[in-house]
Amino acid sequence: MATVAHLDFEKAITEVEQQIERLQDLARERGLDVTAELRSLERKLHSLKRDVYENLAPIERVMVARHPNRPYTLDYLKLIFSDFIELHGDRLYRDDGSIVGGWARLEGESVMLIGHQKGRDMKENLSRNFGMAHPEGYRKALRLMRMAEKFGRPIITMIDTMGAYPGIGAEERGQAEAIARNLRGMATLRTPMIAVVIGEGGSGGALAIGVTDRLLMLENSVYSVISPEGCAAILWKSGAERDKAATALKLTATDLQQLGVADMVIPEPAGGAHSDWERTASALRDALIRYLDDLRALPVDELVRQRLQKYLQIGEWRGTP
């Protein structure tokens, strides 16, 4: 796990963690028994984390979703899956490192795993393009999905991106067309599909691997058509209004479950996924197994019918004119 970083609203949590570290250092240096004191501080820390994280504002959840120590696709791959064989390239232009994909096993079953991948340092972020895919990344993803369909294997995607890369080269090579083709292709794929928003789900760059039978969201993940900063710049002509924008966008996992977009909110440990990768991965594994079991029980024609109906219903107006 990367070096621990802290957000502004975690200041009180950080102070207690530092007290625990100092007490542990003192006990090692002087051979003291501080078991009782440590237990008291650890109880205080757990309570503090629970209180802080249960009352986060939408913009604070955005910050947690972007936390640099939050586990990424390849981290979950190591914690949940086995026997990963990465597949590369879109067979048209090049391999895009911002999207990883390949065969893996989940509880002994072969699945196709595809997800956005960010870097842990500047060098890796440059090679991964900060998790923002070019069109060849989305074409690679669709190629792998078609392969999974051919062999009748389930598809699992992990969403974690600020959005599709908006550079000139990406636009010249058909960024919008690649995303649109993915949306159309995923709508009718004849195999079970699950998407999980593990961090930030930004705009079409996220949706391009998100049109699945079930959409799961980690508790502190977010999913929206635009970032709070971008929304604030458009509506209020100032990025300083991002707090207001985050609230208006209804981008939290709880909001999206209530709106019928997300099918499940996966609880995170007190302190967020970045504080305990293993517990987060365990909860995600259980959810994936549960939903895959449900989807496998459906005939393929019914699976596709329900998928189409799911997306036709999103945003449907049911009030009075």
Note down, in words, how this protein is organized.
The protein has 321 residues and is of the alpha/beta class. It has 2 domains: 10-55; 62-313, Alpha-Beta Complex (2-enoyl-CoA Hydratase, Chain A, domain 1). Helix content is 50%, strand content 15%. It is built from 14 helices and 8 strands. Strands 1, 2, 3, 4, 5, 6, 7 and 8 form an 8-stranded mixed β-sheet that branches. The longest helix has 20 residues, at 11-30. It is globular, with a radius of gyration of 21 Å.
Helix-strand layout with pairing:
Blueprint: H1 11-30, H2 35-54, H3 58-65, H4 73-80, E1 82-86, E2 99-106, E3 109-116, H5 122-128, H6 135-151, E4 155-161, H7 168-172, H8 175-188, E5 193-202, H9 203-207, E6 214-218, E7 222-224, H10 228-235, H11 242-249, H12 253-258, E8 264-266, H13 277-296, H14 300-313
Helix pairs in contact: 1-2, 4-13, 6-8, 10-11
Can you give me a brief rundown of this structure?
The chain has 321 residues and is α/β, with parallel strands linked by helices. It contains 14 helices and eight strands.
